[in-house]
Each structure stands twice: as structure tokens, then as C-alpha cells.
Write a structure and sequence with these properties.
alpha/beta; Aspartate Aminotransferase, domain 1; Aspartate Aminotransferase, domain 2; 2 domains; seven-stranded mixed sheet; four-stranded mixed sheet; 15 helices; about 40% helix; binds pyridoxal-5'-phosphate
């Protein structure tokens, strides 16, 4: 790809001074780093004004486009009153209002909000809280965690210990505490002729067997409800969540719903758990929570969990903190994001939008190299036949040359666009993805 001097200068400086995430830096000898100067709506603009459709919502965080006027205005107003204050011993309107509104979105069932700064810290908080609950409750042997095969819950050591993506985990295995994996209800793994629902039931029986044997030593099961993102957008039937909820109740094991990616409308309901009509014991949120503006995460939990920590003794309390916990700017961005959900009737509007995207992608789904075309809410994914180990990087470049930001996971191509994607942009995304596919043998 042709790059101008301005672009080249910035990307060379970046390659020297910035160690980029999730990257073998040597690959950037050939693979371009894209220097972004500004962004608006679904589009990112580089230093030459070349544009890219942000079809992965900047790593799954953006909901209403870049430079959303209402979120901008809310942040500017907040800047003029309070940017940040420590949350231990202090409080402020944005964090209180946000906690009340998030709790209300769970029907009041999860009435207590504990804040962190990013997704991985939310996972850490939920794991530590679950363990500590059982300890405070006189069951100190309940120290184990269960996750699904192919799960992803973040990459700090605790979160990585319940993550099951070899590429991220294997190198650090000696540092990690063991956790158990049970079969994933991912319908692609169903035996021939078995429906997604029956596959979910089959996997629930495997969970039941595991819990039957290990429940006295198990603190919690952690799941990504409906869609396991980082393993390659594995989608599954909501029946699994209903079964998991019932089994966790039967065996006195916490259910942690990691809705860091699936929350905030991504799967078609505000929370993915709503589609199974269940409530977890711990609900982890991040990514879309601020509309993609600022780092923030939160773990919501139930009254009995809160009560188990409420005592005269200091160490019965949850002595966990992050410096930026409950940052006022981030909470204000989150409140503006919740306002937009109401003002624009986002969940209903997305239903129509999703149908248009699925229709526009029909020719793509019928492409001879496309397998397992699937969708849940505002997520679409498919596997590409005949992809080699280098496919992901080559496809990324082919898409970039066609004004698309797409970042396949192995041979899985997915769309996770901002909810404000227009009909025109939907067409462009579907058409150019096909072109990129044909250009990536
Ligand atoms: C992204 C993600 C995380 C980790 O969040 P970070 O902010 O990247 O630490 C955890 N769980 C799920 C399901 C995610 O998609």
C-alpha cells in the first residue's frame, strides 16, 4: 500500500517508541501500522485523510460511532466540574447515578456495583469476590473455577487462568493457577444432525457431571453468555445458560456472567443473559460501557454477596482497589451512553439494522469459501475455507486497501460494527468484504 511521508513518519515513530498490544512487532516490518489522525461516526481517518470503516468497533468497544456529539458534550461538561476523585471514602454523582441505573437494568437483582478500569480487572474482581464470599461463609475449600473450552476473560494472570485460548495462555502456563474447562456449547462443534439446542443440553450434562464431582471445591463457573468472542465468535443456544444457572443453584456454585463484550446491546438484548431469562451472581461489564470513550469496568452482584462482606472485621471486607476506580469522566460517558439507549430506542432500532446487515451479507454467506455464516444481534461471523496460517494478516491488508478495518481471528472473519452504521455503510461492508476475500487466496 502507498503511504505518504506524514503517515510513514508517524508509523516509524510508533514502531520505535510504542510496544503495540497483541502483536509480534517484527511483523510491522511489512504489515502497516495505521496512523489515525481523527475519527467520526463509523470512520477512522489516517494522516492523509484516507478512511477506514471501523467494522470491529475499535476492538469491540464503540457503540454509537466516534465523536458522538452527546457523549462529547457530557464529557466536556463533566471536565468543568470534576475529573476524578479517589473512590475509597469519597463519592460523586456520576458514580452513584451510574450504579443506580445499571442495577435497575438488572431489575434491581444485582444491586451492588464494584468498579475497575478494564475488562480483565472486572474478571479479577469477580473471581476474588466469589472465592472470598465462600471463605467468609465458612466454606474455604471452594477455591476452584470452571470456564468453557475456548473461553476468554482477559489476560492478567487471574483472568488468563480461566481463559482457554492457547495462543494467549500456553506461554504463561507455569505462572497460572489451574482451572477446569467444560465443553463449549458452540454449535459448530455439535455432532452431525444435532441441533444447537440439543448440543447445548449435551454440554450442560457435561457441566452437571463436573459439578457433581467437584462442587465442594468449586467457587464459580464463569461464562461469556451467548457468544464466546476471542476464540472466534463461537455462538450458542441460550438453553445452555438456563441449564448452567439451574446447575449452579443446585450445587451452590456462583455463576459469573462475563458480559464485557456481549453487554450493552451487542447480542440483541441489553444483556445477553436476558435471552435466557437468567441473572448471574456476578455480572462483569466493560468495553461498550462508556460508548468506547474511556476505560471503565464494573462488577455487579447480589445482596447476599454484599452482606457476606459486611462486618466489623476489616479483612472480611473486599480490600481490592484500582487507582482510577469509578473515574468521574468515565462514569459520565457511561451515563451519556445509557441516555442514548433510551433516546434512540437502540435495542429496537438494532433489530431492523441487523436484518438489513444479514440481508446485505447474503451473497457473502453464499460465497464458495465461506463456512458457518452466523449472527447474534449485532455480531456476524464466518470461517474461510483454505486459509493458511498467514490468512488473518493478509486479509487485514486486503480489507484495509478497500477502506475496511477487519481483523480476522485465525480464519474467522467477523463484523462487529458501531450501532450507527448506515444502510450505505452496510452495503459497502458486505461488498468490499467479498472483494477482500477474493483478493486473499
Ligand atoms: C475484552 C474482553 C475481556 C478483557 O477486557 P480488557 O479490557 O481487554 O481487559 C474479558 N472478557 C471478555 C469476554 C472480553 O471480550
Amino acid at each position: 500500500m502507498q503511504t505518504s511521508t506524514r503517515n510513514t513518519v508517524l508509523l516509524n515513530r510508533s514502531r520505535t517508541a510504542v510496544w503495540h498490544p497483541c502483536t509480534q512487532m517484527k511483523h510491522h516490518e511489512t504489515l502497516p501500522i495505521v496512523p489515525i489522525a481523527r475519527a467520526q461516526g463509523c470512520w477512522l481517518y489516517d494522516c492523509d485523510g484516507r478512511r477506514y470503516l471501523d467494522a470491529v468497533s475499535s476492538w469491540w468497544v464503540n457503540l454509537f460511532g466516534h465523536a458522538e456529539p452527546r457523549i462529547n458534550a457530557a464529557l466536556i461538561a463533566q471536565l468543568q466540574t470534576l475529573e476524578h476523585v479517589m473512590l475509597a471514602g469519597f463519592t460523586h454523582e456520576p458514580v452513584v447515578a451510574l450504579s443506580e441505573r445499571l442495577s435497575a437494568l438488572t431489575g434491581g437483582t444485582l444491586g451492588h456495583c464494584f468498579y475497575g478500569s478494564d475488562g480483565a480487572s472486572a474478571t479479577e474482581i469477580a473471581l476474588k469476590m466469589s472465592f472470598h464470599y465462600w471463605r467468609n461463609n465458612g466454606q474455604p475449600d471452594k477455591t476452584g473455577f470452571i470456564s468453557l473450552a475456548g473461553s476468554y476473560h482477559g489476560e492478567t494472570l487471574g483472568a488468563l487462568s480461566v481463559t482457554d485460548v492457547a495462543l494467549f495462555k500456553d506461554t504463561y502456563a507455569p505462572l497460572l493457577r489451574h482451572s477446569a474447562q467444560v465443553p463449549s456449547p458452540d454449535w459448530r462443534q455439535a455432532a452431525a444432525g444435532v441441533s444447537p439446542r440439543d448440543h447445548a443440553l449435551h454440554c450442560a450434562r457435561a457441566l452437571e457431571r463436573h459439578l457433581g464431582q467437584h462442587h465442594t471445591r468449586t467457587a464459580a463457573l464463569i461464562v461469556e453468555p451467548l457468544v464466546q468472542g476471542a476464540t472466534g465468535m463461537a455462538m450458542y443456544d441460550a438453553e445452555y445458560l438456563r441449564q448452567a444457572r439451574a446447575l449452579c443453584d443446585r450445587y451452590s456454585v456462583h455463576l459469573i456472567a462475563d458480559e464485557i463484550m456481549t453487554g450493552f446491546g451487542r447480542t440483541g438484548t441489553f444483556f445477553a443473559c436476558e435471552q435466557a431469562d437468567i441473572t448471574a451472581d456476578f455480572l462483569c461489564l466493560s468495553k461498550g460501557i462508556t460508548g468506547g470513550y474511556l476505560p471503565l469496568s464494573v462488577v455487579l452482584t447480589r445482596e447476599p454477596v454484599y452482606q457476606a462482606f459486611y462486618a466489623d472485621s476489616v479483612t472480611r471486607g473486599f480490600l481490592h482497589s484500582h487507582s482510577y476506580t469509578g473515574n468521574a469522566l468515565a462514569c459520565r460517558a457511561a451515563l451519556a451512553t445509557l441516555d442514548i439507549f433510551e433516546q434512540d430506542q437502540v435495542i429496537a432500532a438494532n433489530r431492523d439494522k441487523a436484518q438489513r446487515m444479514t440481508a446485505a451479507a447474503e451473497p457473502l454467506a453464499a460465497h464458495p469459501r465461506v463456512r458457518n455464516f452466523r449472527t447474534t444481534g449485532m455480531i456476524w461471523a464466518f470461517e474461510v475455507d483454505g486459509a493458511d496460517a498467514d490468512f488473518s494478516r493478509r486479509f487485514f491488508e486486503a480489507a484495509l486497501a478497500r477502506e475496511l478495518l477487519l481483523r480476522p481471528i485465525g480464519n474467522t472473519v467477523y463484523f462487529m460494527p458501531p450501532y450507527v452504521i448506515s444502510d450505505e455503510e452496510i452495503e459497502l461492508l458486505a461488498t468490499r468484504t467479498r472483494e477482500a476475500l477474493d483478493a486473499t487466496p
